[in-house]
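Q: Structure for this?
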Amino acid sequence: MEPMQPILETRGLCKRFGFVEAVKNVDWQIYPGQVTALLGDNGAGKSTLIKLISGAYQADAGEIWVRGQQARIKGPVDAFNLGIAPVYQNLELVENRNVMLNMFLGNELTHGPLGIFLDKKRMADQSSQVLQDIHSRIPDVRVPVAKLSGGQRQVVAVGRALVRGGDIIILDEPTAALGVEQTREVLRLIETLRANGKTVILISHNLSQVLEVADWISVMFHGEMVGTRAKDQVSRADVVSMIMGTKADDLAMA
Amino acid sequence: MMELSGKLKHLFVSRQWVFLVLVMVIISIFTGAVNPRFLTIRNLTNLLSQVAVIGLLACGATILIISGEIDISAGANVGLTACIAAILMRSGMSSPLAALLGILVAIVCSTLIGVGCIIFRAPSFIISLASISVFKGVALALTSGTLQMIMGRMEYLGSGTVLGFIPIIFMITLLGYVATHAILSYTKLGRHVYAIGDNPRAAFLAGINIARNKIAFFALNGFFVGLAAILLLARVGAAQPTTGSGMELQAIGAVVIGGTPMTGGKGNVVGTFFGVLLWGLIANALNMLGISPFWQEATMGSLIIVAVAITSLRALAEKSLLA
C-alpha cells in the first residue's frame, strides 16, 4: 500500500495548552479518495489535531503538507483555500437562516456593483446541485435549518464543506447525536463522498461504524499518534488495545 | 375553513407587523371617535415628523441588536453631533458641509464603541454606557452648556413637506428604512449581521472576519445616528448637550415592539418601522385624548413590557405551529 502519495500530511505537529501537551509530535498521512478514521479515547487529542489542520488553532511546532507542498494555515480561510473543509461536531450552523445561506456562510455569492448584492438564485442552484450530488433528501434549500432533523443538519454541514470546493472533508463525530436511521444516512453519505472522489477524515468513538466505512484506521493516545493501519489488516481487538494504550508498543513494531 | 384560519394564524405569528398594523387601526378608530382632530391631515403630518428622528435611530439599533450588540449611547451621540453641527453652522460654515461633518463625527463615535468592544473584549452595553458620559461631557465642554440656535438654517429641511403633507424628514427616514432593509436582506454584510448575532462561533469557523464586520455594523449605526441628529437639529432649530438624551431607549423600545428579540440573530427592519409608527401613534393619541404627560410616560414604558411579552409568546406559538 506504499506507492500512493498522501494528499495531506503532518510532520512533527505539536500543540500545548499550558502544561498539557494536547498533540505530541504527530506524523500522519492521509491518502486521497479514501476514508481515514481517527480513533482515540476522550482527551486523546483528536479534536485538537483536526483543529490544527483546519486552521482553528495554530501549531506550536511541526509542518502540514498538502498535495506535496508545505502549507501555511493561519486561519479557517487558509484551510478552505487548500480544500480542507471541517465539519465540526456541533455543526456550527446558523439556526434561523435557511439551508442555502448556511451552505454559503462566509462564502456568499454576490453580483452587482462592487459585488454588494447577494446572488440568491445562483446560491440556490448550486446548493441544490450539491445536495443532489450527495443524494440528500432535503426538499427545499430555503427551509430554515431550525426545522431540519439531526441527520439533515449533518448533510447541510457537509454541503457547506462541498460548496467551498472542499475535497478533504473532516467529519467530527458525525453520528454522536443521531438515532439509528439517521446514523445509516450519514454512513451512506460518507460512502457517497468517497464514490465522488473526496478524501474523508472521520473522527469517531464508534468502532463498528468505523470498521464499516473506513479504509484506514488511525489511533491517538495521550496526544500521540499510535499508528495507522489498513482496515483489512487489523482486528477489532487490535484497535481496541491501541485505543486503550495497551500493547501499543508491540503494535508499533508490527 | 380550517386551512384559512391556519393561514391567518400563521400570518400573525410569523409577521409581527401585521399585528402592529391591526393595533394601530384600533387605536386610530378609538382616538378619532373621541377627538376628531386626531384624524386630520395636519395631525398626520405632525405625527410623521415626530417619529422621523426616533425612526432613524431605530434603523441603526435594529442592525446592532440583530448582530447581538447594543448602543445605548445613541441619544448622547445625537446630542454631541447636533451641538457640533450647530456650532459649525453658527461659525459661518455652509449648512450641508456642517451637517456632513456632524454625521462624520457620529460615525467616528459609534465606530470607536465597536473598536473598544473588540480590543477590550467587553460587551457593547458597558462600552456604550460609559460613552454616554464621554459624549455628554465633550458636548458640554464645546458649548459651555449653552443652547446653540441655528436661526432658521435648514428650515426647508425641518419643516418642508412633500405633496403638501408628508414631511421631508419623514421621507429621509423612509429612505433609511429602504436602505437598511436592502442591506439586511440582499447583501453579504446583512447576512453576516444575522450569522454573527445567531452563532458567532459558527461565523468565525466559516471564515467570517468578526472584528471587521462588527466595526462595519457600528459604523452603519453611527451613520443613522448622525443623520437623525441632523434631522432633529433641522426640526428643532437648536441643540444643547441634553438634546437626544433618552431617545436611544425609545428607539430600542421600537425595535423590540417590532419583534426583534434582544438575543440577536433574528428580526427585521420592517417590524421596527411599524414599531416606530405605533410608538408615535400612541404618544400622539395619548395627547389627543388629553391624558396627563406623567401618565403618558408610564403608558409608554408599559407598552414595551407588553411588546416583550407578545414577542416571547409569539416565539412559543411559532414553535408549536412548526411542530
